[in-house]
Each structure stands twice: as structure tokens, then as C-alpha cells.
Amino acid sequence: MNVGMSAATGEYVMILEPDDFMEYNMVEALYSTAKELDCDVVKSNYWSYKGSTGTNEFTDVLFDKTCGIVTSALEDPKVVLIRPCIWTAIYRRQLLVDNAIRFNETPGAAYQDTAFAFKVLSSAKRISFLHDAYLHYRIDNEASSVKSSGKIYNVCDEFAAMESFICTRRELRAHLMPILQVLKFDTYMWNLNRIADQYKAEFRDRLSLELLKAEYDGFLKRELFDDARWEGVQAYIRDYRTPHEA
User: Fold this and answer.
1) pTM (two decimals)
2) Under 8 Å CB-to-CB from 155, ≥6 apart: which residues?
3) Which of 44, 94, 107, 232 has its CA at a distance of 20 to 30 angstroms from the CA of residue 14?
């Protein structure tokens, strides 16, 4: 994908992974919206597709986001919480160039969409959403990288890259670092539920340590977490502190 972006010369960039497919009018729909609203990013929903049965399920990743208007992460920080789904959007190529946005070339090809999507959404000044779905995302591919349990720390590399990215942008750090902790907690919990059992205790310690650091730095904000998430955050911090302080 980095090679493709380096070779691209068009106004916008779009990503299509080889095991997925799109509706014939997807590019037209996203591009026409981008031109009409002068957007850096236009993002839509998608279809979860099972090739074994040929079934499609509409998947809403935008939830409460108002479609057809222009927004940004500075105006609505929660846009960075949207599931990455890098293949449901088009991106102004100049935005990627100006902000040096690339995919992290870490071994294993897992989670690289996480930091890419965050960097794009945090940098874009004009973002718009479309409720319709155009991309058919294959969910029954056993070779998909997310099915591998060996890549347990790739997600940590992604979040380290995300934190480094906004730390170099003074106007974004204070504004987005707290909401990034919500995204981190959700993503780490998802990763914890999918990795092999023998790695779970080790990964829990990693999550706890990063939450402790965020708390120390003043980036854990109670008002950004719902009750269940906040209870989980406090439990990880408490459970880690107890044996270490004892």
C-alpha cells in the first residue's frame, strides 16, 4: 500500500484489499461527495460478506455520526473512534503527503490500518460520511491476518506510532490524547480476547502499565468512558497496583 501511495498521482487515494469487492458506483459516490463538500476524507459503511453462503450484512460503523455534513477531529474528537475500515473511504492524496502518513511496515501485516486511520482522521480538516454501504468485506477468509494469534504486540506498535504522531502536533496532543486512551482500551481488549491463552497474562500487564502511564500523564478522562469501560480501566489499574505495591 505504501508503494501504491508513492506511485499515485491522482487527487484522491482509495484502498481495495484483494479478497474484497466493491459496488460499481462506489468511487463515483465517494468522489462526488468529496468534490461537492471539498473534503479531505469521505467514509461510508460496508457490507460484511460471507463467500461460503453469498450473504451480505449491512455493517454500520458510523453509528451516531451525521451524514452529509463536514466535520473534523478538532470539532468532534470521537471521529477517531470509528472502526478503521480503511477500504470504506477515499483520502485526499495531498493530505497524506503533507502529513507524511504511511502504513507502519511492521512484521506480520496485522493492525497497520489502525494507525493509518487515526493519523488520517486526526489530520483531516474536512471529513464527511455516507450512510450507504458500497464495499463488500469478506469475513470468512481463514487466511486473514486478524485470525493469527501470534501477533500480540503489533497493536501496541500501532498505538505507539499514533501517540508519537500527535505528540509532534501541539494543537492535537491535548485535544486527542485523552480520546486515544478510549480507542486504546477498546482495541487492546479486543486483542486480549483473540490471542492465545498463554499470552493473555503478559498482555494484561502491558495494558495495565499503559493505563497507569496515561493516568500519570493526565490523559485518562472519566467523562470520555462509559460506566462499563471506566470500571474496566480502574480494575486493570487496581489489579496491577495491588501485587506490585504489596
Assistant:
1) 0.89
2) 110, 111, 114, 187, 188, 191
3) 107
The grid coordinates listed for 47 are 457490507
Q: Please, are residues 44 and 107 in contact by the beta-carbon 8 Å criterion? A: no
**pLDDT per position as a tens digit, 179-209:** 999 999 999 998 888 888 888 999 999 999 9
Query: What's the N-to-C CA distance of the chain in angstroms?
Result: 49
Neighbouring C-beta atoms of residue 116, cutoff 10 Å: 24
Each residue's pLDDT tens digit, 48-88: 999 888 889 999 999 889 999 999 999 999 999 999 999 99
d(CA 78, CA 122): 10
All residues at 6 or more sequence positions from 36 whose CB lies less than 8 Å from its CB, including other chains: none
What number of H helices and E strands is found in the chain?
Answer: 8, 6
Domain boundaries, the chain: 1-143, 149-246
